[in-house]
Design brief:
Helices cover about 40% and strands about 20% of the residues. The protein binds nicotinic acid adenine dinucleotide (DND), adenosine-5'-triphosphate (ATP) and glutamine. The site of adenosine-5'-triphosphate has 19 residues, from helix 6 and strand 17.
């Protein structure tokens, strides 16, 4: 007979491969959960080793170390049962597994049945599928256990119904993209209604290379309504109570609106990339344009002003307005600000190349030299100080190749890599509404690379609203140019945009890793051939 059960959820931020650090976080969560009277603690998918461990999962020793960590942790359990996720090797066969640790032993064990191999997930590269449901009983409640993608199809839940589960517990490593939580609610509600069971969804939080996990764990009643909602993008621990077959209603933290979600994901991505990789700070080339302004805003919100420095590197083409706006923004934020004019280096390079270029007209070569001089200066500062250079290129630029190799692409982490230019504006306006840190002029002036007199982006690129819509259709929805033109876009503009997108794959392969924000980002989930002659249908 079902009774009441208090279950703690540890929405924590693991570090991939830091087994002792992750176990220490689980231990701390165990102490807090026990103090609050919980009888069961859920930790996220692969909580022992972090997610995704990628090719560490090809190493036999990795499995040995993870098993040792689980067994050691099991010995430290008492009245509180703890669910942990870990990679399991059974001879040559490997599983994405979970163990229930209780009173010094592993009392139940589960192998993930649906392995995601889409978007950014590669689990079929590493794991075999499990084939059995897992039910364990705590205080008379029959708990059914699933791992993340198991919830996204009906079969694993069906197995739990047949095995007589009273509640569905799902441990997750589900990275965010914009509006992802609505998809999670939808699949959880499908499973809840099919089974007539309440669902508890425990997710991890934090940045891991290009991925950001948003947490946002929740409890859902059998009718699909939300009984408890944890905050997004923050480590969090809560105890939720199951009374009979329903959750006792608890705090429902409102979820962020789209701009807040995007901006916070960038902040968490930057903070964890630098923090987990041990960088003392960040360096940003601040041009007086909107991309570097937003990048600086994110960096300061992530790291604090004392960890960020901005460098203005004017050329003879730099407008006074750019100098003024960059200095003003650095002053408002209180970051270290240096001005390093690049004209001396431009002259030296022009002199060194004079004989080579004799009789040839000026073109983008001279523009790229300016960008590369700036890249070289920023990298020199990085080498000398140990701080990382944050690049500022946005998704529209990455898509079209509107960036210079070894120039403005030089750096360690690409903050806006998956942020369309149109979203760059929206995020800047949203951030300024919280406190005005980006000078208004930076937002309202026409974007310009300032690599030659009176240059504006729109001389070389279609309007960003059109460009972004075409990129999104081609890239994120896999639409053909014919379909895009049928939606009313000018065929010549579609041809040009798609042409740039395909031609510039080589640049993206050389770009720094950057934060994924959309369902399909340039990164793990975009593997287009560089050498290709496929003709799209028009
Ligand atoms: N398939 C391929 N595989 C490998 N390499 C390939 C290649 N195709 C060309 N290349 C090589 O790539 C090089 C050309 O690329 P690259 O040197 O980058 O130069 P490129 O793409 O020609 O020019 C850079 C563009 O970015 C714009 N820009 C620059 C800086 C900042 C901004 C901004 O507003 O943010 C915009 C600039 O106005 C210009 O339109 C050449 O050396 C070429 O041989
Ligand atoms: N004068 C400058 N001083 C410092 N950094 C610069 C300068 N010009 C360009 N950069 C760096 O190179 C990046 C590419 O910027 P560029 O001005 O060419 O085009 P952009 O894409 O419009 O970027 P932004 O909106 O930041 O100006 C900038 O974001 C900045 O990091
Ligand atoms: N780790 C997983 O199994 C993730 C798969 C799932 N579709 C998600 O993103 O939530």
């Amino acid at each position: 007979m079902k009774t009441s059960l208090a279950i703690a959820v540890a929405q924590f931020n693991p570090v991939v491969g830091d087994l002792s650090g992750n176990v220490a976080q689980i231990r701390a969560a165990m102490d807090a959960a026990a103090a609050e009277g919980a009888r069961l603690l859920l930790t996220p998918e692969l909580s022992i080793c972090g997610y995704p461990p990628e090719d560490l999962l090809l190493r036999p020793d990795f499995y040995d170390r993870c098993r040792e960590a689980v067994e050691t942790l099991a010995l430290q359990t008492d009245e509180l049962a703890v669910v942990v996720g870990y990679p399991e090797a059974d001879g040559d066969i490997r599983y994405n597994a979970a163990a229930v640790l209780h009173r010094g032993r592993i009392v139940a064990h589960y192998r993930k049945q649906r392995l995601p191999n889409y978007e950014v997930f590669d689990e079929l590269r590493y794991f075999d599928e499990g084939d059995a449901a897992c039910i364990f009983e705590i205080d008379g409640v029959r708990c059914g256990l699933l791992i993340c993608a198991d919830l996204w199809g009906a079969a694993p839940t069906k197995g739990l119904i047949e095995a007589g589960a009273d509640v569905i517990l799902v441990i997750n490593a589900s990275p965010c993209h914009l509006n992802k939580q609505q998809d999670r609610y939808r699949v959880a509600a499908d499973r809840a209604r099919e089974s007539g069971l309440p669902v508890l969804y425990a997710n991890m939080v934090g940045g891991q290379d290009e991925l950001v996990f948003d947490g946002a764990s929740f409890a859902m009643q059998a009718d699909g309504s939300i009984a408890w909602q944890a905050p997004a993008f923050a480590a969090h621990a809560s105890v939720v109570r199951l009374n009979g077959s329903a959750w006792v209603p608890a705090t429902v933290t409102p979820l962020p609106e789209l701009e807040e979600e995007a901006y916070t994901a960038l902040v968490v991505g930057v903070r964890d990339y630098l923090g987990k990789n041990g960088f003392p700070g960040a360096i940003i080339g601040l041009s007086g344009g909107i991309d570097s302004a937003l990048t600086l805003a994110v960096a300061v919100d992530a790291l604090g002003a004392d960890k960020v420095r901005a460098v203005m590197m004017p050329s003879p083409y730099t407008a006074q307005m750019s100098l003024d706006d960059a200095a003003e923004m650095a002053r408002i934020l209180g970051v270290r600000y240096d001005v390093l004019p690049i004209e001396p280096a431009m002259k030296v390079f022009a002199g060194m190349l004079e004989a080579q270029f004799a009789g040839l007209p000026e073109d983008t070569t001279e523009e790229n030299l300016q960008s590369r001089i700036r890249g070289m200066l920023l990298m020199a500062l990085s080498n000398k100080t140990g701080s990382i250079v944050l690049t500022t290129g946005n998704k529209s630029e990455m898509a079209t190749g509107y960036a210079t190799l070894y120039g403005d692409m030089a750096g360690g982490f690409a903050v806006l890599k998956d942020v369309y230019k149109t979203l760059v504006y929206r995020l800047s306006v949203w951030r300024n509404a919280r406190s005005a840190i980006i000078p208004e002029n930076i937002i309202t002036r026409p974007p310009s690379a300032e690599l030659k007199p009176d240059q504006v982006d729109q001389d070389s690129l279609p309007p960003y609203a059109v460009l972004d819509a075409i990129i999104e259709a081609y890239m994120e929805r896999d639409e053909s140019p014919r379909e895009i033109v049928a939606q009313g876009y000018d065929e010549a503009v579609v041809r040009r945009t798609v042409g740039m997108l395909k031609r510039n794959e080589y640049k993206r392969r050389q770009s720094p890793v950057g934060i994924r924000l959309t369902r399909r980002a340039f990164g793990k989930d975009w593997r287009f051939p560089i050498t290709a002659r496929y003709q799209d249908p028009y």
